[in-house]
Specification:
Number of helices: 3
CATH architecture: 2-Layer Sandwich
Structural class: alpha+beta
Organism: Streptomyces pathocidini
Helix content: 25-40%
CATH superfamily: START domain
Protein name: SRPBCC family protein
Radius of gyration: 14 Å
Order of helices and strands: EHHEEEEEEH
CATH topology: Alpha-D-Glucose-1,6-Bisphosphate, Chain A, domain 4
Pfam families: Polyketide_cyc2
Strand order of the largest sheet: 1-7-6-5-4-3-2
């Protein structure tokens, strides 16, 4: 298993951050691992909705099928996914209002036999991608 997280204080209210986070048409502008939604983003955006995402992990293409697990507008967006080679993914965005700003935390988890073989490299790559994503997200909402 590989677990990674990143967090940042974004100078925008939680509702504005949430609107950008759930604007799936603009994911490529800020999400460092995203390449496309072959059938569009989750529609409707609701608990239990499934959707496909093409990603790049450690430089390799990865097709993932996500299911929305928890959805609390302007607070929590939590998904679980199934990727290539039996890899299971989990991603949770947590937004905490902080005055006129928002504290954003992303927690990601990767499990499966293939993860065991490359856990260290995956952690480094995923951590860098999460931090880059938060930096770009912050640039879009401020």
């Amino acid at each position: 298993m590989a677990e990674v997280s990143a967090e940042a204080r974004l100078e925008a209210p939680a509702e504005k951050v949430w609107a950008q986070l759930t604007d799936f048409a603009s994911y490529a502008e800020w999400n460092a691992t995203h390449t496309s939604f072959p059938k569009g983003g989750p529609d409707p955006l609701a608990q239990g909705t499934t959707y496909e995402e093409n990603m790049k992990l450690m430089g390799f293409p990865a097709e993932t099928v996500w299911t929305v697990e928890t959805l609390e507008p302007a607070r929590v967006f939590h998904t679980k996914g199934k990727g290539p080679m039996g890899v299971n993914l989990e991603q949770r965005y947590t937004l905490t209002p902080d005055g006129d700003a928002t504290h954003v935390r992303i927690d990601s988890e990767f499990t499966g036999a293939a993860v065991t073989l490359m856990a260290g490299k995956l952690k480094d790559s995923a951590t860098a991608a999460l931090n880059e994503s938060l930096r770009k997200l912050g640039g879009l909402v401020t």
